[in-house]
Automatic annotation (TrEMBL), chains A, B:
Species in which this protein is naturally found: Streptomyces telluris
Descriptive protein name: ROK family protein
PANTHER family associated with the record: BIFUNCTIONAL UDP-N-ACETYLGLUCOSAMINE 2-EPIMERASE_N-ACETYLMANNOSAMINE KINASE, ROK (REPRESSOR, ORF, KINASE) FAMILY
Highest rank taxon of the organism: Bacteria
One Pfam family here: ROK
Family, as annotated: Belongs to the ROK (NagC/XylR) family.
Signal peptide coordinates: none
InterPro entries: ATPase_NBD, ROK
Length: 336, 336
């Protein structure tokens, strides 16, 4: 039932516009990296972002004249299929019609999607893959993408699968960057891990966490992961706390979407089993009717931080197909 | 983009097997009721359920020889497309291959789906309708169905959209019938309303609620709704409490599925605006990026308690189509 995906030598430029940096490169339709450029810092005003993106695209296009499309994965709410970025925390753009601007500037067909959607598509195409899969990214924030019946699911307007905004603790104390109290993100992100770690270090100022960070006030998610890998019980307890919340969010996700695979990526997921084992335990505790169903696997992402721009390039090429997923859609039965 | 749906005179038998009763009738492909029979109590053992279903189908088939299919909506987890009922709270069946048994007994093509899916499809076809819509039923329990890109969404194995098991209060006090602590159902169902009302009546033994029920211990969801309609502030506060939780669940649903319409049905929804107004307020408070998106409408269901069996009949006829949704699936772009 997999859609027919052409693994040919057409090229696309891919970009990943995040809160802090822009990653870019050129990939072919098989997802092979043809060229990558060093990530550049993401400017803080909209005109400068556009300028940086244009320069990157122009350079990559000049060096790779076989390029037939441009794909962008961008943090924030991205209106589909217009590729208009409506809003994004930590970035300057507001209601930016990036797809149109890119097409005008380059003369190439462009695709602009959410960054987690792009990374999800890369993982589906080149990494851990299933016909019904959720991709979750745990970094500074928490995001996600979904493949249903072998197609990227975007909802009606492109803003589906705002996984970090699953409401899991509405009467809790943490306010999300989006303004709502109760979202998963402030409980299960890298930033949350830093906060948990800071509190643990303050409670034990001579402990591994505080020492490693150079003071309780300087603990970050990375410090916690490093201390956990070094075997520090206090640091491991914080990853368990993160996994507790992540498992709750995944339980809701599986109860609603009935996927067969959940892939966890992003910087915090590099902690591996130290995060995944408590996540699985929490998931099994909270998913409904666990005894009456096959539980989906919760596995680490195979692709690393390049998944965003590679996935954006692949989406741009798959969009360019006369009919990505056509075989599937033409089938008379089953499907989403 | 709507799938082509034939509004013709083919007939199907529809059944709705709930926890307490079985409703049945015959409808045509336009969803028009051709015959309905009085609901019968649902027996408490599996053999008796099968017997009751067989008798109903046989009688309806005999009186309506033009019947070409049988559709069943059943409470519980229903494996799709096998139509095997894996488990259901409050009913006797366990791993019952109902679709196969019905086909063998009747010689007609049969379809067995979750009861909320069937009601959702009836609402989509004949009631409040949108290409991306969620249907929520608030009765004894809380259930739901989803239409994405004009197709009923069932997930990989048929058990998607277990909306009552959205985890909204994992550190709370209420244990769900499924065994998990944190599910929406024990906080937003008719049973929860009865519990809330009972506590309110106990706090005010001479109040409207207690009087109407004939004692604080005898308050049910229905009593609370009746007292609220009569203007009792204590009863209205309980519907507001239900709406608070329902809005939280809907916020997660909309954050994940990006639907344009949420339809609320089921017995408790007959309270109308007394429930829907607080639900909308809570939803607007908890949905992410409310200022940057068009908020979906939250509206009452147009169809009543017959939606289950009518939707099951319609699903059976739409399944019988060579390609329900084919036009949509053949389109080159968009979609789920």
């Amino acid at each position: 039932m997999r859609p027919r995906i052409h693994d040919d030598d057409r090229l696309a430029i891919g970009l990943d516009i995040g809160g802090t940096k822009i990653a870019a490169g050129v990939a072919d339709a098989g997802g092979r990296v043809v060229e990558r450029v060093p990530a550049v810092p993401c400017p803080s005003d909209q005109a400068a972002i556009l300028k940086a993106v244009s320069v990157l695209v122009e350079e990559l296009h000049a060096r790779n004249p076989g390029t037939v499309a441009v794909g962008v994965g961008a943090a924030g709410l991205v209106h589909w299929p217009e590729g208009r970025i409506r809003t994004a925390p930590n970035t300057a753009y507001r209601d930016l019609p990036l797809r149109r601007l890119l097409q005008e500037a380059t003369g190439l067909p462009a695709l602009v999607d959410n960054d987690a959607n792009a990374a999800c598509w890369a993982e589906y195409r080149k990494g851990n893959s299933a016909s019904y899969m959720a991709f979750i990214t745990v970094g500074t924030g928490v995001g996600g993408g979904l493949v249903l019946a072998d197609r990227l699911f975007r909802g009606r307007t492109g803003i589906a699968m705002e996984f970090g905004h699953t409401i899991v603790d509405p009467h809790g104390a943490e306010r999300c960057g989006c303004g709502v109290v109760g979202c998963l993100e402030p409980l299960a992100s890298g930033r949350a891990l830093g906060r948990y770690g800071g509190a643990a270090a303050a409670a034990e100022p001579g402990g591994t966490l505080a020492t490693l960070a150079g003071g309780p006030g300087r603990v970050t998610g990375e410090t916690v992961s490093a201390a956990a890998r070094a075997g520090d019980p206090a640091a491991r307890a914080q990853l368990e706390r993160l996994g507790h919340w992540l498992g709750i969010g995944i339980a809701t996700l599986v109860n609603l979407f009935d996927v067969e695979l959940v892939v966890v990526g992003g910087g915090v997921a590099e902690a591996g089993e130290l995060l995944l084992a408590p996540t699985r335990a929490s998931f099994a505790r909270y998913v409904t009717a666990a005894a009456h169903r096959e539980l989906p696997a919760i596995e680490p992402a195979r692709l690393g931080p390049e998944a965003g721009w590679i996935g954006a390039a692949l989406l741009a090429l798959d969009q360019d197909e006369p009919a990505p997923g056509r075989e599937h859609r033409e089938g008379p039965g089953g499907g989403a």
